[in-house]
Amino acid sequence: MEFLLSILVGLLFAAGVYLLLHRDFVKLVIGIVIIGNATALFIFVAGRIVRQNAPFIQENGLPPENFADPVPQALILTALVIGFGIQAFALIVFKKVYDIPKVDKIDDLKK
Question: Whole-model pTM above 0.85?
Fold first, then answer.
């Protein structure tokens, strides 16, 4: 399962970078969204996928032998909030750039 998710993360990063290299603003914003989701999935896969035990201390004072790590889950939540902020900023910049000179490609801004 982790192998398939790792391949999916690689494909998402490749698709995001491919869209970032285009000169169209819409594709640029979609590339930012895809890279943000790929990053969240990468952190999730790096934190091990375990469904047996919650990360609670047992009665003997030791954690369970095989447990889900809560730190990657907290990092994913933080990354999602930051990603939404970046996406909102990119959409506002896209709207402002499109409204003023009526262009939708980055190369047309030089004119």
Answer: no
